[in-house]
Amino acid sequence: MTGHHTPRSGYRERNSTADRALDILLLFTADKPVWTGPDIAAALGVARSTGYRYLQSLVGSGFLEEADGGLRLGPRVFDLARLARAGLGLSEISLPAMRTLAAQFDETVLLTRRSGRSIVCLDLVEAQQAVRLSYERGHVLPINAGAAAEVLLAWSDPGEVTTVLAQAPLQRFTRKTLTDPELLRIRLAHIRKRGVAVSQGELDDHILGVAAPIRNAAGSVCAAVSVAALAARIPRDRLGSVVTAVHTAATAITQRLTLRDS
Asked: Starting from the edge strand earliest in sequence, which strands make up the sheet with 197-200, in order?
């Protein structure tokens, strides 16, 4: 008895109607947002009548619509783009900029948010250095020490800040930790003016932190991105470039968040 050959899955072969539809949609670019039917058929290498059939289907389902001079992407594409953006969580949106920042300085980058009287690490990108700082997802940090905490407090509602600071005495970790609520408020005002927080030795004598606020589509600060490094690895003449890079990363994440929620 002879065996019979089982045909390969059609998913591997690019000749289906779905593939043709995708090829058509991918023709549209910022440089060429409008295409005519004949141009599309020529680009695909199919007869005009065949191209017209594909186009009828795409227009009928809202993926393309008629425009001056031809066809352009239709409302269904924008609906799908909106759904795709809405499905992205804060970590997914932030990680590309965080990875860039971590690679630039080979230092640990944290994504944090405030939860009541604590700062929670939502995500991180670790440095490749032999001596690394020990942070992990879900790590809880104090409210009054370190750049990330100060950035998140600086843009919180002033009434809420008063309540949070009054709930219990602020803990001291090093001689540089601010435990006086009034001194901390002065620091927060300075951070708002500068746009970033730089702290050294407030939580640990040897750690330097640089943090910047991330805003949501409404303009409210919802998280912070920060670099945490051994202070000895960031000489004073290099600090300015770290501050600029952290601010740039926060801006990039803010823009992606705004796009997701717009």
From this structure: 140-142, 118-125, 108-115, 221-230, 207-215, 197-200
Angle at CA 253, nearest 5°, toward 249 and 255?
115
CA dist 243 and 229 (Å) reads: 13
Kindly provide the residue ranges of all beta strands, DSSP E only, lying in 116-164, ordered along the sequence: 118-125, 140-142
The pLDDT, as a whole number, for residue 133 is 67
96-150 per-position pLDDT tens digit: 999 999 999 989 999 999 988 889 898 999 887 655 566 777 788 888 889 999 9
Q: Evaluate if residue 6 carries a pLDDT over 60.
A: no
241-257 burial by CB neighbour count: b if 16+ within 10 A, else e?
A: ebbebbbbbbbbbbebb
- CA–CA distance, 222 with 250 (Å, rounded to integer): 11
pLDDT range class, residue 244, cuts 50, 70, 90: very high
**Burial of 148 from C-beta contacts in 10 A (0-12 / 13-18 / 19+):** buried
Contact by Cβ (8 Å): 246, 234 = no
User: Would you mind telling me the total number of residues written for the chain in this entry?
Assistant: 262
| Matching residue, tokens 């990875």 | 99
Q: Do residues 242 and 104 make contact, with C-beta atoms less than 8 angstroms apart?
A: no
Q: What is the pTM of this model?
A: 0.69
User: Residue 142: its pLDDT value, please?
Assistant: 87
CA distances from 72 to 33, 37, 69 (A): 6, 11, 9
